[in-house]
Amino acid sequence: MKRHNISVLMLMICLSTVLTHAAKVTTTSIDISSFADTTWCGAPAGGFINCSTFPFGEQTYDGIPFLIPGNAQGTASNIWAADVEAGGNSGTVSVTVPINVAKVKTVYTLMNTMWGTGASGLLSVTFTGSGGANWTVDLTGNVNVRDYNQNGSTTNSILCQLPGGVGKTATINAWVNGEGQRLDEQVYELPAAFKNQTLVSMTITDSGNAGEQRSFLAALTVSTAAP
Amino acid sequence: MKNRKLSTLLLMLCLGTGLANAANKTINISSVANNSWCGDLGIYNLNCSTFPYGTKHYNGIPFVIAGDKKGTENNAWFSDFAAGGGSGVVSVTIPVNVAKVKTVYTLMNTIWGSTESGLLSITFTGSEGATWTFDPIGGTNVRDYNNGNYTDTCICQLPGGVGQSGTINAWVNGLGQRLDEQIYELPAAFATQTLVSITITDSGNEGVQRSFLAAVTVSTTGP
């Protein structure tokens, strides 16, 4: 009788573990349209190069779903652009995107820069949890972010890896148009402290300048699974 | 008594399902490895002592790279060494024998490098007739292990779905050398078969492009 009870108990634990694992399709695309401040073909400087080729709506890159704001007419804003936020001038600008998803392990962003430099201290992303967890990542050109436009004079490389563990970040490519423009995907594996909290928000802080480096955010997706 | 047997049976099934979820399996390629990182052709030895061996994790995937601390054991299969340093087609077949494989990860780069097609292919063979041949192209799917004058770019993406491949970086030594990770999401036909083997066929030449394979890992889950 005692053995039988132990078997039943172990069976319940095992089933619970397997079912938890099975119920894991957990990506959530965050709608950033309320923060989007320009279109692909809008400011600054009359739009991105080959702007009409840029994606919008639901897209899947590297197996991850993303929601890029915008519409077919090109009248709805597509991205949050730091350069637009700063009015084309220097100075620090930021945006805080509410997330409010529990037990997030991984955050995916579609982010590139206009212009680009390998200098540090120009761009950071901060993740804030409901129970006090906080993680700030400084993004460096040619490592974590790069110019959306391939050219020889700014930033053209990224790490091209996935994160190696919790509290790490890496960047791979998401989209290219075959004409020299691209969108890259940053993958953030949150520190363990976020595991039992709700990811409240993500804040981007940009201290660049026109002609130097200015970031833009096109989409944000979170997942309760590891990368 | 009957209930007890039923519980035990269900427990075994449950544990089996749980273990099946632990889906990465490293493949030991030491039996086909034909040279070491610091081997005797003198062309592989750019900072060769910094190259990895043993069990490593890259991009969250475990790999086993053949070799030992003393450098006396072979580390990888080098097509250039298999060809005796000349031209000609060489190949290697690696037994896998793992059921229901969805994803194959390789650590592969080239010595030299070319964007020409037709120099390199990889064929996956299933137990019930499934077969998939993919042609890795220099500058997209594979690149020179040494940053410099040959192929220095890769697609830097994960596969977009079944029957597709992507490549990202696995390892760099900070001195200009690297190992890249190819990710193959097998066609659906493999989902119900055993992946019997992987064959690499290299038709390059010295000064053009020659591939080398450092590790293979298979997984029954998607990338």
Describe the structure.
Chain A is mainly β and 227 residues long. In chain A, 11% of the residues lie in helices and 37% in strands. Mean pLDDT of chain A is 91; it is low at 13-23. With 223 residues, chain B is mostly beta strands. Chain B has one domain: Jelly Rolls, CATH 2.60.120. Helix content of chain B is 11%, strand content 38%. Chain B is built from two helices and twelve strands; from the N terminus they run H-E-E-E-E-H-E-E-E-E-E-E-E-E. In chain B, strands 1, 4, 6, 9, 10 and 12 form a six-stranded antiparallel beta sheet that branches. In chain B, strand 7 and strand 8 form a beta hairpin. The termini of chain B are far apart. At the A-B interface, helix 1 and strand 9 of A face helix 1 and strand 9 of B.
Overview in brief:
The complex is a heterodimer of chains A (227) and B (223). Helix content of chain A is 11%, strand content 37%. Chain A is mainly beta.
Shape type of chain A: globular
Mean pLDDT value of chain B: 91
| Structural class label of chain B | mainly beta
The CATH architecture term of chain B is: Sandwich
* Number of extended strands of chain A: 12
* Structural class category of chain A: mainly beta
The Cα radius of gyration of chain B reads 19 Å
**Approximately what portion of the residues of chain B adopt beta-strand conformation?**
35-45%
Q: Enumerate how many helices of chain B there are, as a single number.
A: 2
- Count, helices of chain A: 2
